[in-house]
């Protein structure tokens, strides 16, 4: 664990810490909030979530959240939703992560449209109503009811308009667009097909997840190294500030304050990649392991199971070595 994290957060200006809240308007069944502090609490109407929090629904769980300007998020059963943030083009960017399950979005004149992320894709939106479904194997399905959504994965880009959909397999570019009439989508059929695909190819699916994990590790490492450089430059500027007697505030505003913002953003970014990797490990690959172990409970000598366990151990080894150093105790 990185010991300096609590210290470096102390100098983040108030403008950086501010973020919009999402408030629970309706809760049904088992719905749990995992706070950025690590605390787990049952969701209740009136609760809010902020960047760093997660929402996990059980088999009978369902929740509705409201954002600014009457925008809404609906979280279906057996879903893991993470509200994250990162720096993008020198400003904070909200990231809504559908790790697993089904979520509906309706955005209405937000000041800043968030990015939508799944294990297999990233989407940008504009005043849009759409649904995203993420399967156990990391595949995603987008269906647009109003507006447009730009879905990007593995260098490919597809722009969806009214009543259009697209599927994205983990490690692949988006597929061909298809017609998706509002109210007639068969998400259960698509999810069942993906579950069958995973059962038939567990090792191949997990291997692709390992490659995704490695990409998160590269992102965390890159931004962490940038953070170290920025922190060193910030310390030098602060030392210089302590030697100045005239125009001290002017030096702070022009030199120190911008470097504080830059350093804070770099922390935000490498933490974003580390937490994305944690969600992949905890909610996706963890479920893969339980599902596969249950299936082969009495057949553990089968080559498919032994090969899956080897790949699972490789995944865990990479996670422990390349991701855990960027996590805090509260994360796990």
Automatic annotation (TrEMBL):
Coiled-coil zones: 227-254
Keywords assigned: Coiled coil
Keyword Coiled coil attributed: yes
Domain (FecR protein): residue spans on this chain: 54-149
Family annotation (Pfam families): FecR
PANTHER family membership: FECR PROTEIN DOMAIN-CONTAINING PROTEIN, LIPL45-RELATED LIPOPROTEIN-RELATED
Name of the protein this chain belongs to: FecR protein domain-containing protein
Biological source species: Spirochaeta isovalerica
């Amino acid at each position: 664990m990185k010991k300096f994290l609590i210290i470096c957060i102390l100098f983040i200006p108030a403008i950086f810490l501010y973020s919009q809240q999402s408030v629970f308007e309706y809760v049904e069944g088992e719905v749990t909030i995992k706070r950025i502090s690590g605390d787990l609490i049952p969701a209740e109407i009136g609760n809010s979530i902020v960047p760093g929090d997660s929402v996990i629904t059980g088999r009978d769980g369902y929740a509705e959240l409201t954002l600014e300007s009457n925008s809404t998020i609906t979280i279906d059963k057996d879903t893991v939703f993470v509200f994250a943030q990162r720096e993008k083009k020198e400003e904070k960017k909200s990231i809504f992560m559908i790790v697993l399950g089904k979520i509906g979005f309706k955005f209405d004149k937000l000041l800043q449209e968030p990015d939508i992320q799944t294990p297999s894709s990233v989407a940008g939106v504009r005043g849009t109503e759409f649904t995203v479904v993420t399967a156990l194997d990391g595949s995603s399905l987008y269906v647009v009811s109003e507006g447009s959504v730009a879905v990007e994965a593995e260098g490919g880009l597809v722009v969806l308009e009214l009543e259009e959909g697209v599927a994205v397999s983990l490690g692949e570019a988006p597929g061909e667009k298809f017609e998706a009439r509002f109210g007639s989508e068969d998400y259960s059929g698509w999810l069942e097909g993906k579950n069958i695909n995973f059962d038939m190819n567990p090792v191949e699916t997990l291997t692709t997840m390992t490659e995704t994990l490695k990409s998160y590790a590269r992102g965390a490492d890159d931004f962490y190294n940038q953070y170290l450089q920025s922190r060193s430059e910030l310390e030098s500027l602060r030392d210089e500030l302590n030697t100045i007697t005239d125009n001290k505030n002017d030096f702070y505003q022009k030199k120190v304050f911008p470097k504080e913002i830059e350093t804070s953003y770099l922390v935000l970014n490498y933490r974003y990649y580390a937490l994305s990797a944690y969600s992949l490990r905890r909610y996706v690959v963890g479920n893969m392991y339980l599902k596969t172990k249950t299936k082969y409970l009495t057949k553990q000598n089968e080559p498919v199971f032994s090969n899956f366990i080897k790949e699972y151990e490789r995944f865990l080894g990479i996670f422990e070595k390349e991701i855990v150093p960027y996590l805090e105790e509260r994360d796990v």
